[in-house]
C-alpha cells in the first residue's frame, strides 16, 4: 500500500464544489506537485489534507491509518504557507521551537534539535531575531525549520516561493529540494508556476476546475499533454486545427494537434536536417519577443499563427518583422490532443 | 525660500501649541498663587492649595472611587471584548461590519438622552441599581466599547489571523493555546493603547456620573462639580492634579507600547 492514499475526496463550500472525487497515491519520500491555475482547488485540497478544511466526502490514509477525521493538531503534518505565518511576537528560536513546546519539550531539551535545524536552513546566528528583522527568504526558511523540527510525516508547501523575488526563489527552491532529499520527506507542493513544478517534482498532478486532469512525471506531462488545457498550461504549445494538420502533415485527428514551439525550426540555408525534420512551409514573421536565452517568434503560416522558440545565439541572427522564412517541423513531436 | 516656508510651518505649529497651552499654564499659575485678586500679578506663590487638596479625605475617596469604577469597567470590557473580537474575526468575519455599526451606538445617542433613558429603565427594577457604582461600571463599559473594539480590531487586521492559527494548529496547539500564545501577545499594543485612551476618557466623564449616581457615590468629576463654589485656587489645583495624572498615564502608555515594538 502507498504511503499516502486519497480516496474519492470531495469538498464543497455550500453550493460551490471545489473539487470532487479526487484520487491519488503518493509513495514515501516522493516530491509531488499540485499544479494548476488559481481557483482550480489545489490550495483547498492541500488544506483538506492538512485538516484545516474538512472534507465532505472521501478518505485520507497516511501510513496505513485513516486520518480523514483526525484534527489538524494530531495529524503530524507540517505546512509552510505563502504568507510565512511566522509568529511575530516570538524570536526565530521560539518560532522554530513552538511545535516542540506544544509537545511538552522544553527549549533546554530541544537545544540540540534547534541548532541542527538552524544549521539545516542556514540561519545560525539569527536565533534571537524577530521575524520582522528578516528578509522574505530568511522568513520562509524559518517557517520551513518550524515545520520540520517536529518531524512531520508529510510536508505540505502552499506556494512557499510565490512572495519571493526571482533570485531568492531560485536559491530557496534548491534548498527545499536538498532538504527534502536529505530527510527523505514525503512532500506535497502547491504552485501555479509550471516551470517550478517541472524543476522540482518527481510527479505532477495537474489540476483544473477541481479535477486532476493529468498526472505523471514532468517529462510526460510536458511532452504528452492529454488535452488542450494541459497543452496550453504546460508550455506555449501551438494548437492547430484538425484540417490544417491533415493538409500539412497528413495526420488524421478529430481534435486539435499540438506542436511545441521548440520543435519547429527556421531553415538555415546549407544546413543538413535529419529525415524526420521536414514538411517545409513558408512563413512570415509578425513579431518577436526576447526572453533572454530564447527568442520567441510569432509567425503567420497560411491561416494559422504559430510561435517558434529559437536559441538566442547572436543579435546579427535576429530576424526583423515582416521577413519571409521557411519552416521545418519535427514530425516525431507533433501529436493530436484530447479535448 | 525653503527656510521661509519652514518658518511659516513652525510659527503655525507654535501658535497652536501656545494657544492650547495658555489655559493650562494660567490654571497652573493660579493654582500656585496664594491669592490673585485685582492685581495683574498674583500676590505670592504657595503650595497651600495643593496641600489642602491632597489632605482632603473627600478628594482621596473620590479619586479612589473614580479609579475603582474606571478600572472595573475596563476589566469587564477586556474580558468580554477580547474573546468576542476573536470570535468575530476568526469564525464570522462578516459580522465585523455589523459590529462597526453597533459599537457606534453609545456615541450616536447623546449622554444626556441615554442617561435619562437608563434612569427610566432601571428606576423600577427590583435591584437598586440607580445611585450605585454598578450601573456606572456597566454604562462606562458601553462607552469604552467603541475605543476598545476599534483599536483591537485594527491589531487583528495587521496580523494574518487565519494563517497564524492554522500554523499553530498544525504544530499541535489547540485553538485556546493558539489564541493565548500566538494571537494575544500581538494584540498587547492595541489593547494597551485602547485601555489608556478609554481610561483617560472615562476618568473625565461627568454626565452619566452626575445623572445616574450623583452625590450618592461621589466620583472625581462630581467632587470637582461640588467644589465649584469654593476657592478658584482650590479647584485649579484639583484640575491640575487631574491633568498631571492623565499626563502620567499617557506617558506610561506610550512607554509601554514603544517597549513592545523595540
Automatic annotation (TrEMBL), chain A:
This protein's UniProt keywords: ATP-binding, Nucleotide-binding, Transport
Matching PROSITE patterns: ABC_TRANSPORTER_1 (PS00211), ABC_TRANSPORTER_2 (PS50893)
GO MF: ATP binding
Transmembrane spans: none
UniProt domain ABC transporter: residue ranges: 4-234
Protein name (Swiss-Prot/TrEMBL): ABC transporter ATP-binding protein
Pfam family, one: ABC_tran
Keyword Transmembrane part of the UniProt annotation: no
Highest rank taxon of the organism: Bacteria
InterPro entries for the chain: AAA+_ATPase, ABC_SmlMolc_Importer, ABC_transporter-like_ATP-bd, ABC_transporter-like_CS, Mo/tungstate-bd_C_term_dom, P-loop_NTPase
TrEMBL record, chain B:
Keyword Nucleus: no
Subcellular location: Cell inner membrane; Cell membrane
Residue stretches spanning the membrane: 12-30, 67-92, 98-122, 134-152, 191-213, 233-253
Domain called ABC transmembrane type-1: residue spans: 63-253
Superkingdom in the source lineage: Bacteria
Annotated membrane topology: Multi-pass membrane protein
Keyword field: Cell inner membrane, Cell membrane, Membrane, Transmembrane, Transmembrane helix, Transport
Protein family membership: Belongs to the binding-protein-dependent transport system permease family.
Name of the featured protein: ABC transporter permease subunit
Amino acid at each position: 500500500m502507498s504511503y499516502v492514499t486519497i480516496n474519492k475526496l470531495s469538498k464543497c463550500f455550500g453550493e460551490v464544489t471545489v473539487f470532487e472525487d479526487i484520487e491519488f497515491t503518493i509513495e514515501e519520500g516522493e516530491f509531488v506537485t499540485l499544479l494548476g491555475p488559481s481557483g482550480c482547488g489545489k490550495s483547498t485540497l492541500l488544506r483538506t489534507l492538512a485538516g484545516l478544511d474538512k472534507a465532505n466526502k472521501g478518505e485520507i490514509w497516511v501510513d496505513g491509518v485513516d486520518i480523514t477525521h483526525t484534527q489538524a493538531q494530531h495529524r503530524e503534518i507540517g505546512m509552510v504557507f505563502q504568507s510565512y505565518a511566522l509568529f511575530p511576537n516570538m524570536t526565530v528560536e521560539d518560532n522554530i521551537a513552538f511545535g516542540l513546546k506544544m509537545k511538552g519539550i522544553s527549549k533546554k531539551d530541544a537545544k540540540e534539535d534547534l541548532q541542527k535545524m538552524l544549521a539545516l536552513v542556514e540561519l545560525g546566528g539569527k536565533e534571537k531575531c524577530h521575524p520582522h528583522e528578516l528578509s522574505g527568504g530568511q522568513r520562509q526558511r524559518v517557517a520551513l525549520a518550524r515545520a520540520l523540527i517536529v518531524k512531520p510525516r508529510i510536508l505540505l508547501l502552499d506556494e512557499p516561493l510565490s512572495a519571493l523575488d526571482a533570485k531568492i526563489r531560485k536559491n530557496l527552491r534548491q534548498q527545499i529540494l536538498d532538504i527534502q532529499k536529505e530527510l527523505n520527506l514525503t512532500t506535497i507542493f502547491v504552485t501555479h508556476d509550471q516551470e517550478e513544478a517541472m524543476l522540482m517534482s518527481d510527479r505532477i498532478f495537474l489540476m483544473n476546475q477541481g479535477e486532476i486532469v493529468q498526472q505523471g512525471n514532468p517529462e510526460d506531462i510536458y511532452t504528452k499533454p492529454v488535452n488542450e488545457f494541459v497543452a496550453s498550461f504546460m508550455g506555449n504549445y501551438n494548437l492547430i486545427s484538425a484540417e490544417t494538420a491533415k493538409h500539412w502533415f497528413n495526420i488524421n485527428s478529430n481534435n486539435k494537434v499540438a506542436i511545441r514551439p521548440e520543435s519547429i525550426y527556421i531553415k538555415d540555408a546549407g544546413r543538413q536536417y535529419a529525415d524526420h525534420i521536414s514538411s517545409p512551409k513558408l512563413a512570415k514573421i509578425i513579431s518577436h519577443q526576447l526572453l533572454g536565452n530564447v527568442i520567441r517568434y510569432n509567425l503567420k503560416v497560411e491561416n494559422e499563427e504559430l510561435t517558434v522558440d529559437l536559441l538566442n545565439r547572436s543579435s546579427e541572427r535576429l530576424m526583423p518583422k515582416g521577413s519571409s522564412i521557411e519552416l521545418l517541423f519535427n514530425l516525431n513531436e507533433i501529436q493530436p490532443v484530447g479535448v | 525660500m525653503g527656510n521661509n516656508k519652514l518658518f511659516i510651518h513652525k510659527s503655525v505649529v507654535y501658535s497652536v501649541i501656545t494657544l492650547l497651552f495658555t489655559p493650562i499654564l494660567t490654571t497652573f499659575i493660579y493654582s500656585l498663587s496664594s491669592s490673585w485678586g485685582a492685581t495683574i500679578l498674583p500676590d505670592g506663590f504657595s503650595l497651600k492649595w495643593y496641600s489642602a487638596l491632597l489632605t482632603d479625605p473627600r478628594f482621596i475617596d473620590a479619586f479612589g472611587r473614580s479609579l475603582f469604577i474606571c478600572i472595573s469597567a475596563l476589566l469587564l470590557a477586556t474580558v468580554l471584548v477580547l474573546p468576542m473580537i476573536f470570535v468575530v474575526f476568526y469564525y464570522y468575519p462578516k459580522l465585523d461590519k455589523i459590529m462597526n455599526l453597533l459599537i457606534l451606538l453609545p456615541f450616536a445617542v447623546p449622554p444626556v438622552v441615554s442617561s435619562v433613558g437608563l434612569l427610566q429603565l432601571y428606576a423600577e427594577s427590583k435591584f437598586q441599581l440607580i445611585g450605585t457604582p454598578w450601573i456606572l461600571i456597566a454604562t462606562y463599559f458601553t462607552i469604552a466599547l467603541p475605543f476598545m473594539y476599534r483599536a483591537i480590531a485594527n491589531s487583528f487586521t495587521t496580523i494574518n489571523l487565519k494563517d497564524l492559527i492554522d500554523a499553530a494548529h498544525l504544530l499541535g496547539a489547540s485553538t485556546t493555546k493558539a489564541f493565548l500564545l500566538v494571537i494575544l501577545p500581538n494584540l498587547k499594543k492595541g489593547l494597551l493603547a485602547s485601555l489608556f485612551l478609554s481610561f483617560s476618557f472615562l476618568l473625565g466623564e461627568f454626565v452619566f456620573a452626575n445623572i445616574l449616581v450623583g452625590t450618592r457615590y461621589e466620583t472625581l468629576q462630581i467632587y470637582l462639580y461640588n467644589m465649584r463654589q469654593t476657592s478658584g485656587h482650590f479647584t485649579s489645583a484639583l484640575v491640575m492634579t487631574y491633568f498631571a495624572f492623565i499626563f502620567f498615564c499617557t506617558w506610561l502608555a506610550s512607554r509601554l507600547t514603544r517597549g513592545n515594538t523595540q
